[in-house]
User: Fold these one by one.
Assistant:
Number 1:
Amino acid sequence: MLVALTLLILVDPAESMWMPKCPFKLLTGLSCPGCGGQRAAHALLHGDVVGALRYNWFLIYAAPYLLLLIVERFFLKGDWQQKVQRFAESKFVVMFYVFSYFAWMVVRNILHI
């Protein structure tokens, strides 16, 4: 993880031909929900929140959910961990996340975002 973060800090994925490209986009020409994620991570690591959101608007939803899962796994213990886990991993929340993931893929390709 540290190697990947260091690489993202040092190398701009938008300008490097060596950074991996999205296989879904290479095969279909369509943007997947995660397209722009590397560039967004690079922007975030350099403190450019607005730039990161320009690369992938789904971060507005995905980042807080990911942060919640990280906090639940690594920082909470006991009852609090169980309560947060029950919420974050409930069928409704997971299905909502999956639905919104694919809805974002459709929207971003229709609107060319």
Number 2:
Amino acid sequence: MGVVSKLPVYMERIPGGGILTTSAEKFFNWSRASSLWYMLFGLACCAIEGLMATGASRYDYDRLGMIFRASPRQADLMIVAGTLTHKMAKRVKILYDQMSEPKYVIAMGGCANNGGPFYYDCYSVLKGVDKIIPVDIYIPGCPPRPESVMEACLKLQEKIKKQKLGDWSSSTS
């Protein structure tokens, strides 16, 4: 007899009579993608014009389950927004190393992606954040629109939902 014969009895006890089945991997990935906590820091103009505008009430990160955290130990998403200088790069690397696994990085704006307008004529600007930490999503623009930032977050959520549980240690490769 077993569970199959008793299944109608169990279904009647569940409100609505439905059963939802899924794998643990899909459940964990859905929960991780639906609760991204991003580290709140900004390097230059992209932080104000793109990142903070996206977190404001008009676009509202909260509806995606994204909450800002001031501590790297509580964050799993780093959004590098703005011009990254060589002096600041060491500190960004330290913050990235303090984040717990799995961790993700979004490079936002031309300066974070490849040095922006400072690429040729400035010795102090790093020519892309991917020189020091791995990047998952690149957002072009100077500064990127809030819609672009929201789309990047949705793309990151899709990427997280497709991951395998064993890939956590190499989540940003």
Number 3:
Amino acid sequence: MAKYVLAIDQGTTSSRAIVFDKSGSIISTGQLEHEQILPQAGWVEHDPKEIWDNTREAIGQALSKANITRHDIEAVGITNQRETAVVWDKNTGVPVYNAIVWQDTRTQAIVDRLAADGGVERFKAKVGLPLATYFSGTKIVWILENVEGARAKADAGDLLFGTTDSWVLWNLTGGTEGGVHATDVTNASRTMFMDLESLQWDDEILAIFDVPKSMLPEIKSSSEVYGIASGHSLLREVPIAGILGDQQAATFGQAAFDQGEAKNTYGTGNFLIFNTGTDIIHSKNGLLTTVGYKLGDAPVHYALEGSIAVTGSLVQWMRDQLGLIKNASEIEDLAKTVKDNGGAYFVPAFSGLFAPYWRADARGALVGLTRYVNKGHIARAALEAIAYQTREVLDAVNADSGVPLTELKVDGGATANDLLMQFQADIIGVPVVRPVVAETTALGAAYAAGLAVGFWSGLDDLRSNWQEDARWEPAMDPEEAARLLRNWKKAVTKTLDWVDEDVR
């Protein structure tokens, strides 16, 4: 029997391949960043070909570093940036346009058009999502309406759509030579096209969006063999057996399998997922209803999700656009040069505000400035913004579920920032807990694939792998935390109603 499972983590800023052993420990990693293409304000794109090339190279790096071959890999799992849309020609394998990234806001006019009849919650009862630029559906519409020849090709059945899991799977299993065109229920639930109860594409909604069903991948469970890696791959003959959207994968990697369990991932954005078991709960407080996971023929598990658009990417912006830091890790030291935020609050509504506000008209604001404020205060305000946004989402989860969380499991790159994690515990008033393996997104995809082929025998195997690495207890006076949160909420109001008809 092979010794390892390999996970492909196709993220917003990079593509990675990580090899895991049976204990869930990382053996090796390959990683390459891809270009963030920003043609104009509000537009965010990736080159799908660059993503696929980088994925292949990352696989080679991971195998090489571990000094192993495909014969040592039992199965491959895929996790991905969920709502990013790729449309390609099935006959040539060439994308008709760059991937339109989940952060992209160009489709607001399409959202407004669709919301004219029934409002932004027009389809929410069926798909769990409000109409928003965030999701894949309007991105497909934009490509069909704006890329020359795309509509004719789509109507002729020559175009395929996929989130990046489908793009990687199709290429990995042969591409134009018999590539598998599929996705899992978690990614399908982020398109606006999947009925949460039937787990199938909804013909009525597709007709309203005017998207041909022939473009869409087949919806599968999160843990089954979808296909075999082709002969052109370093992983040839290895089964591809797990797919989970990145936030659901992180939840799975945190072993939050049961109703009432939750996690918060600190990545490009922040995403808090609360497992609601086999029950579909429709949020009254600005959260999304989504699919948590589905293992083979077993019942589907649903979740409530609080999606925050800009957290880690705010630090990246301060590095790349402002030049305040040279490396993302430097922001903690810069923030430590001051004892507090100096009265400054940074609301990073670069793509509007996601949960719990869902305000596309918002734009970023740095408020409360005086001449006293320096770059240390701004760095601290940026880190605090991550924690405030998480607090607001957590309040919504508690209100919807009626069962307040007693601790928050966290993962993602920013959990290495002790200052941020302590402030997070202070502002939410419950302990924050980080596991030993912080790469829970890739681990969740590996778990899904390994379960499908018997590498792990069941969920108890995975629960026993989870180990606590660090814990932060609340230490701030509750009255001070309440004052800071009050000022944060005031700062949020300053970002609203910014975008007019002639300002995008």
Number 4:
Amino acid sequence: MAWTWLTIAGLFECVWAVGLKYTDGFTRPWPTLLTVAAMAVSLALLALAMREIPVGTAYAVWTGIGAVGVAILGIVFFGESRDILRLASIGLVVAGIAGLKLSANGGPIG
């Protein structure tokens, strides 16, 4: 269940990171409220996941999900660059997340 909590926490990290764009420096009440709520949910779920997943792995996966998710959302919704280097870099982050997941608790070999 910890990996499920961590995945959902990472998705909520995407929500609050994109939400920051809409808060206009925390001057718009509704986007600010939703962003802060997403932050709270994300952190609470990260804390739950860290009960079973090592802190270094959990934090790296959480930030990786957020980084990849926000980069993709930036491309899709905000017209950010889709050049090959950017896409390859996103792929490397995904590979790192997968590697951390596979290596958790000894991995498939250990």
